[in-house]
Amino acid sequence: MYNLQSIDNGNSHPHVGLFEKGELKSVTPLAQFQFDQQIDAIASSVGPSKNLQSISYIDLRPYRKEESFLDMPVDYEMTLGEDRLHQAYYIFKKAHPGLSLLIDAGTFTTVDFIDESGMKGGYIFPGVQTFLNSYSRGDKLPSLASADNFTIDFDIPHSTNAAIENAMKISQLSWLEKILSSHPIEQIYLSGGHGSLFSKALEDLFKGNVIFEKNLIHFSLYEIYLYLKNNNI
Fold this sequence. Notes:
This protein is α/β, with parallel strands linked by helices. Helix content is 29%, strand content 29%. It is built from 5 helices and 13 strands.
């Protein structure tokens, strides 16, 4: 097994995972991480490129082709974000039978479909906090902190805060329920800072296998690194 520095250069909180002999030992904010030049680094980047300017790392962009990424077929245009692509690859390589759903609940909540034939495509929704922050654009409306759960009080709200918070919860659960009822999902992978919110909601909405791994992007990058090493790429 290998040592590796996995870089998630995301929109909001870029960070680095440190693998020692295949085991994830730590996850550290990118700005605080001290890179070891003797250990390979690999990056998934949807954030500012300036964050990576002084870092030597494996750039995965050349491995994305029009209809594939490495050995995974991809049915999505070339604008697909690296974080979605790389996490989908991890799920593809696990070769679970049937259709998997990947929910990455970060700045935006991305929802992608993967099965043994490859990455099928997906959706981009406003993230939980992005949804709540949007209210600050209105006159005298507050920007609320994220909720602790998706439990909804279906009584008519009697305060601005309750009106906003319940609207967010209904919005998030509505698309989730619709997707689950429209597709034969066998398992769901959750990642991202708000993944735990969906994990609690899915206890009631979904009877299949749910895997919540907030560090999924780092395990995905390690899986990609293994493929590159094992195939001398």
